[in-house]
Design brief:
Blueprint lengths: L2 E5 L2 E4 L4 E8 L8 E6 L6 E6 L6 E3 L7 E6 L4 E6 L8 E12 L2 E5 L6 E6 L1
Parallel strand pairs: 2-11
Antiparallel strand pairs: 1-3, 3-8, 4-5, 4-9, 5-6, 7-8, 9-10, 9-11
Length: 123
């Protein structure tokens, strides 16, 4: 089973940027579609972005399109989430996970969750 460790979160001002990392261990994720999800206080965890393993096609939630970029480095067994033009509503704990499937409504996660990384955006 793959273990996932997220990092890179922090406290930033509105309009700032962060680069989140998700390091995998236990097995390679080079043949897995990987995704980022987030959970804001008092809300359900939601899909943010995903990247397919073969085509590297990407999917984004409408709320983050144009501001978030997802990428992967299979040699490092790591997935990244570049977040630009941060908004207060982006405040959440961000998690990565293996993706089981994607549709027009977003992508579904598969597997256990890591501890996540906190992103806090001040206004």
């Amino acid at each position: 089973q793959v273990q996932l460790v997220e990092s890179g979160g922090g406290l930033v001002q509105t309009g700032g940027s962060l680069r989140l990392s998700c390091a995998a261990s236990g097995r390679t994720i080079s043949r897995s579609t990987m995704g980022w999800f987030r959970q804001a206080p008092g809300k359900e965890r939601e899909f943010v972005a995903a990247i397919m393993w073969a085509s590297k096609r990407t999917y984004f939630a409408d709320s983050v399109k144009g501001r978030f970029t997802i990428s992967r480095d299979n040699a490092k067994n790591t997935v990244y989430l570049q977040i630009d033009n941060l908004k207060p509503e982006d405040t959440a704990v961000y998690y990565c996970n293996v993706v089981s499937s994607c549709s027009s409504d977003g992508c579904a996660s598969l597997g256990s969750w890591g501890q996540g990384t906190q992103v806090t955006v001040s206004s």
